[in-house]
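pinging the channel bc i need a second pair of eyes. not urgent but kinda urgent?? the chain im working w is below, pasted from the shared doc
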Amino acid sequence: MKIALDPTPFHHSHGLLEFPRVAADLGYKYLQLTPHADMIPFYNHPKADDELVTKMNKACKDAGVEIASVLPVLRWSGPDEDAREAAVRYWKRAIQITVDLGVGTMNTEFSGRPEKAEESERAFYRSMEELLPIIEREGLDVLIDPHPDDFVEDGLAAIRVIRGVNSPNIGMVYVASHSFHMGNNALEIMRTAGDKLRLVHVSDSMDHRASHGLRYITNPPGNAVRVHQHLKIGDGDVNWDEFFGGLKEIGFLDKDNTVMVSSVFAEDEKAEDVSRYQLETMKQYVQKATA
């Protein structure tokens, strides 16, 4: 298992090519490459040319850090056909960048719209028909997170959609801070996913359903919003013994092709301290689960 840093908290304080050195200085051997304006931005065409990819490879080599996964977020399940077609084009370039970086894992979100779930699912499979042959040819793992406000948010439902692709190259991401939107049944989701679960994001979150639905308040009441946060371990309501115990049970912690990512976004002003805390705490939980 690879333990990686999500550098999102450092996007506004460091340049793209500094991320490998930041990760190394914080004790990480691996980096997750998340959406960035200079590489693969949210929802739009990748902006990295071959020269920038070469520079990123050199920055990683110089820092002694490897990229464990590349995370694009594109509208490949969008019910708008023009946007979906564009996302497929963007995906093809993102795949090439990933291959040129020497990375074998991509993780992403389902996207689409929950109020148009049927149309979005059709769009997802339509995109997969075009992208899957490329993904399989390149030998990539593409792992998908049922993100809050995607066309599929429930963890078990997400596994069914992934299973429907019928490819060993397509798997699942479990984001701990999305637990309360996925059904708050981590063990059942992990057991059902089995080998399809190959990447997790480690961050805490409050249970938005607590206090009879008043843990968070939006005005006017009834807004169609999804509320969560990416807090450091211990600052929310995630059951971490269950989380790490489940990963141990399905063999996630003992494999070479799995990735565990620290993805805390709520405390940029303390990002260095929080990143070190996350690494040490994840290692402690792994040690406890495997003892």
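so The first strand starts at residue 2 and ends at 5. and The chain has a mean pLDDT of 94. — does that match what u expected or am i reading it wrong
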